[in-house]
Amino acid sequence: MVDDHPIILSGVGAMIDGQEDLTIVGLAASADEALEGIGKALPDVAVVDISLPGVNGVTLIERLVERFPELGCIALTAHDDPGCLRQVLAAGARGFVVKRSTATDLLQAIRCVLAGDNYVDPALAARILNPRHGTQGDAGNLSERERSVIQLVALGYSNKEISSRLNLSIKTIETYRTRATDKLELHSRAAIVRFAHSNGWLADLQ
After folding, report:
1. Local structure of residue 157 (DSSP, 8 states)
2. For an engineered disulfide with 186, which of 11, 56, 164, 191 has Cβ 3.0 to 4.6 Å away?
3. Please, what is the angle between helix 31-41 and helix 57-67, to 10°?
4. Alpha helices in 1-143 (DSSP H)
5. CATH number of domain containing 179
6. Domain-embedded: residue 134
7. Bigger pLDDT: 84 or 74?
């Protein structure tokens, strides 16, 4: 659990630790503390506050995912805007929980990520999955495999993880990804995330 507010850190940590199936193995108040502590404890999940002093939570999640590929990161934030969610997913997070949500939502997010799934806070999911803006390309031009790959990229999976999930070679995944992004004229991960959200694809994988 990573949060720079002592009351939240201890309170939420104690709540999680009180669950029969969950155990807190470390608390951290900064990115440096988190990197050091996670490196020693090697937890299954890290709950990371986005508004950290110094290195922010989004950057921390990027570093954690790069250093510990098996770690499931959940962003905990006071911001419930789609832009924040896009940044978090692009960084590689597997979950997104708004601080004003209930304790049950956070526990559900942790259990979802532990089970290998992804979680987006209900307070934000409805807004994300109701498209209001046009998209760069036509999703109908994609093959089923191309769509699957782009969905997983939008959720923060690496080519290696997608390869394992779809039981295809990394080279094949790279080919599908390139074809899809060329068809849709999507030239960055952020653009892929926006496109996937605007088409409601995230709902298919929840």
Report:
1. -
2. 191
3. 30
4. 6-17, 31-41, 57-67, 82-91, 103-114, 122-128
5. 1.10.10.10
6. no
7. 74
